[in-house]
DUF3459 domain-containing protein (Microbispora catharanthi), 522 residues
Amino acid sequence: MPGNTSTPDWWRGAAIYQVYLRSFADGNGDGTGDLAGLRSRLPYLADLGVNAIWLNPWYPSPMADGGYDVADYRSIEPVFGTLAEAEKLIEEAHDLGIRTIVDVVPNHASDQHAWFQEALAAGPGSEARERFWFRPGVGDGPPNGWQSIFGGPAWTQVPDGEWYLHLFAPEQPDFNWNNPVVREEFLEVLRFWFDRGVDGVRIDSAAVLVKDLDSVEESYTDHDGVHEIYREWRRVSDSYGGRILIGEVWLPDQERFANYLRPDELHTAFNFDFLSSAWEPAALRASIDLTLATHVPIGAPATWVLSNHDVARPVTRYGRAVTSWDNAERRDGMPSDLELGRRRARAAALLAMALPGSVYVYQGEELGLNEVEDIPEELIDDPMWERSGHTVRGRDGCRVPLPWSGTEPPFGYSTGEPWLPQPAGWRDLTVEAQEADLGSMLCLYRSALRLRRELLGDGTLTWLPYGDEVIAFRRDSGLVCLVNLGAEPAALPESGSVLLASGPLDGDLLPSDTAVWIMEAR
Ligand code: NOJ
């Protein structure tokens, strides 16, 4: 059965829910989400019908980049809880049929990591410095002109005059993956978490581990040498009986992307091409075709992703004049028609869930939350804000704590003050409000995930001819998915029974920006 977690290849058709722990649910009233909060809400995730959860980094961290600055890979951030609680979470989730995937961050650590502190103390030429990229500068400046992905130079100078490389914030020094000690350390980290029962890891910034520092041009993306690393990781995951490796691989070149999914490397990787696609029929169809053409020949299942903790929420994105996503051009604050965006996001959800492969749901997507664009400047936490000289507000707008219940903030999320303020307008979007409304986004997601478990997941699709404006395909089970992206209503098929629609149908017409699942008459 697709998505059945008891089968060894459960991941091929899974629905995976992304938990941004900091903002999911707060169990101790300090305003920050934690393991106690998550454990208390596991029944919600079981009701939603997901097969697995992926948690963003939960390790001790100064939170210079929301936990992607890891100070200790074998422990839990005290604000989130304890290792014992993490073990309980894994067990309780398993009891509910939910697998657990943790985030591993191999490209960089926190500057508070013991190894980096040791490297600072040990000084130039030491073995401790060889675990990172320390170099003398050129003249008064850094070793080269590489820029950080968050803005500003990718090098920071330490008091003894050397510089260290950080592709992200200065608090995130990059590991030197040419050093076998680094390689061995991460194999041990994988074993540590697999020994505690985790079912997979999501690999942060997976394509940038190997660097050529002699290059004047920035030279860190997708070096061939990175594949050797993942072959080693795969041997470890296979030795645990099929724990899975999921790559965060942002690469426009699909052939290069596919290399990460060879049978002895990663199991799956996030489909950012689909996430970035404009809400336009030709663009979406092309993205789906490209995805399948990339995955099918190598036997890897596709993934379908609409959002995560780094990108603007789909409700806001799809309501803008420009509906595609581009990391370099975030379009923060571009006006959005949220009603239109929500209608499209509902249709997009049915599209993503109907496609062959696995699907990701980022917390709050199932509630139809919008991007929060008016967080007061003094509360902005994302390092992009400082690094861009206050020109890019960054990613906090999709990381605002979830609204669970009640009519005013903190909406049952916490008994204290949430670490980012929640909009008062979310009173209509709480879990409690949506559970009581059969037409809500939450009810749509629940119904769709239930049907998906029975009828969809991995497999193949057959395109159906419904004209340029309608995306239409049939799945192996006989389920037909139609999405009308045109301005005019489109005719529904004459036979078959409607299982689910993203919005009201107009007799035998499918309105604009609406998706429907139909079971073919047999
Ligand atoms: C990708 C993560 O998703 C993002 O949140 C983080 O800032 C960077 N990698 C650096 O770790």
Remarks:
- The longest strand covers residues 99-104.
- Residues 338-354 form the longest helix (17 residues).
